[in-house]
Design goal:
The chain is α+β, with helices and mostly antiparallel strands. Helix content is about 40%, strand content about 15%. It is built from nine helices and eleven strands. The chain has a five-stranded mixed β-sheet. A three-stranded antiparallel β-sheet has the order 6-7-11, with no helix packed on it. The protein has a three-stranded antiparallel β-sheet with strand order 9-8-10, with no helix packed on it. The chain is elongated, with a radius of gyration of 24 Å.
Length: about 290
């Protein structure tokens, strides 16, 4: 049985390999050598976290005397009191939260989560019939990522008991297509996060200070935006896209390959000398 589950998991997740290969290629350029390992390690850590969660839950590894099981919806409804236990389900994973009775016990704020999978309400905060559902198809990519953060929280702080058959797991405990859809969304969310972190490292935020007598002053340093580096750069307006009206102040290295490739989204501040690392400017937003 375990061998079959492992074979299913390998088949379902083989598509991760080309995605990870793309990340490797993206960060293989010479100008990224200094941060290459850091980003690669983050990628490995994230994918490993998904696999470790999936492998542990799929192979039913748990603490002694807490053998994981497959719950039906009716079985899970039993666990809404301290005597039988307080169980919740999130994205089809079941956790014993009895030790958090002050939060999940009868009359407590989060008691509505017990005995069911109410994944959507973890994000929306709607504790009504519409919100207390395991259907999270209305959530954005980032909201799904935030929901997965809750799964990690329960894995770290409470006892994993098994799986809930239904939307995310079949009766034999194998993942459903809805489960795999969530995992693909998580990978997409992390890819977006990688790209944003990469962008901030290539174009770190400026230091900004506002005073009534002098207005807004922006400047760059070797640690502006909290990002340490060997170069300083000059302040520029970095737009989200060539046609966008939204921008932020970024420190730009004018002799870099990144600057040459992104010129269409970078503009100078009015009244700021081209090579100045500090300027007083009039701006609407950063």
């Amino acid at each position: 049985m375990l061998e079959n589950i492992e074979e299913i998991m390998l088949t379902k997740y083989v598509w991760l390999l080309p995605m990870f290969a793309s990340i490797c290629l993206l960060y293989s350029h010479d100008y990224l050598n200094e941060i290459n390992f850091d980003f690669m390690q983050k990628g490995l850590n994230f994918i490993d976290s998904i696999y470790s969660t999936l492998n542990r839950n799929s192979n039913s590894v748990s603490k002694p005397n807490t053998e994981p099981k497959i719950f039906t919806s009716n079985q899970l409804k039993k666990y809404t009191n301290v005597k039988d236990g307080l169980y919740i389900s999130i994205l089809g994973q079941v956790f014993d939260v009895t030790k958090g009775v002050k939060h999940y016990g009868p009359g407590a704020t989060y008691h509505v989560f017990t005995g069911r999978d109410a994944s959507l309400a973890f994000i929306t905060g709607e504790f009504n019939d519409k919100g207390l559902t395991d259907d999270v198809s209305s959530l954005s990519v980032q909201q799904v990522k935030a929901l997965y953060d809750w799964v990690e929280f329960y894995n770290e702080n409470y006892i994993y008991k098994g799986k809930l058959s239904g939307r995310y797991y079949n009766e034999d405990g194998t993942p459903t297509e809805e489960f795999h859809k969530i995992q693909r969304t998580l990978i997409h969310a992390k890819k977006n996060q990688f790209e944003e972190e990469h962008r901030k490292r290539m174009f770190p935020p400026c230091n900004v200070e506002w005073k009534a007598e002098s207005g807004t002053v922006i400047w760059c340093s070797k640690r502006s935006g909290g990002i340490e580096r060997e170069w300083i750069g000059v302040p520029r307006m970095l737009f989200e896209s060539p046609n966008s009206q939204q921008y932020r102040c970024a420190c730009v290295k004018l002799d870099s390959k990144e600057y040459e490739e992104t010129k269409g989204m970078i503009r100078e501040y009015d009244g700021c000398p081209k090579t100045a690392i500090k300027c007083a400017v009039k701006i609407n937003n950063l």
